[in-house]
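Students often ask why we bother encoding 3D structure as a string. The short answer is that it lets us treat folding as translation between two languages. Here is a chain of 349 residues written in the first language.
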Amino acid sequence: MQFARYFYLDKRKHYLLIFAVFLLLVGSCKKEQPTSPDTPESTEPILLVVNSLGETLSLIYLDDGKVDNDILTFGLWTNHIVVNSGGDTAYVVNSGDNNIQVVNLASLTDVCTIDVGIGNNPWHIAVADTLGFVTNFLTATVSVINLNECCVIDTISVGIAPEGILVHRDKVYVVNTGYSYGTYAQGTVSVIDITTRQVEATINVPTNPQEIASDPAGNLHVVCTGDYTSGAAGKIAVIDTDTRCIIDTVVLGGSPCGVVFTPGGIAYVVGYWGGLMSYKWTDRTILHNADSSVIDRDGFMSIVIDTTAGNLYICDFEQDCILSISLSDESIKETYEVGDGPVSIALRR
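And here it is in the second language, the structure alphabet:
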């Protein structure tokens, strides 16, 4: 699987553009769903893991550490998963099949499949009440979805090759990588008003922004992975939402691709290269960069934080596992074996 994993390392960008014609021809195929051995209780804390190469779901039951692998089949190039605020529904982005798969977590069955249009290559989804906002990598757009009706109701033009997306207060923030045929244009963040569904502003950021998250103080942290070919260092651009200006840039190196925040002031960042890094989100002091990482290991793709249990959970794409990291001493507490190629993880507590 090393050849497939190498292509995923570059987030499939070059691969997707080479096969853009194929995307225009491919259709969605219904797959047989494996039988689920268990369905999670509504109050039970669980981790939901998207295995992109296996195109399946893994569940990790945090109370007892049990893992159920490959219990639900997803579509082609499954890329992202989020859980709604009620904890009863998951939304899964199938990039190659150009759809969003809606899953009932009580029964582990499909509710519906939402087609965003052939050739769009949806990347990530953010949910705001009854609306879903989906970035479309190949068409530089965001699809707006009515989640109750399972249909697209609007399309918003943004920057080149959008990936990460965040709903924060009454705005939607979209990070546009600028990727095109092996090169990167100016990285940007599009600011969309939820009510009018219009782009209000565009903010320039460093090379290849892929993710975005808000810290407890309300500032935005844009995860800029850098240029894989030129070796441009990975950075975090911190944006004040009032002024819409970058107030600081944290140069970590490596290829950062996800960030989470502790209430105590630490931001943890994962990178495919660079392992687990950290800095203070309060004053942006670097604690561990790519050369002095907390965990020096390649293949990290996604991270979530569980402040209740005091743990970080990290997708290790190369080793097909989820790492549980203690916030108290930053050590590995548990390793959960999951399906093939875990890329995205969501916590339901």
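Translate back mentally: The chain is about 5% helix and 50% strand. Keep this in mind for the problem set.
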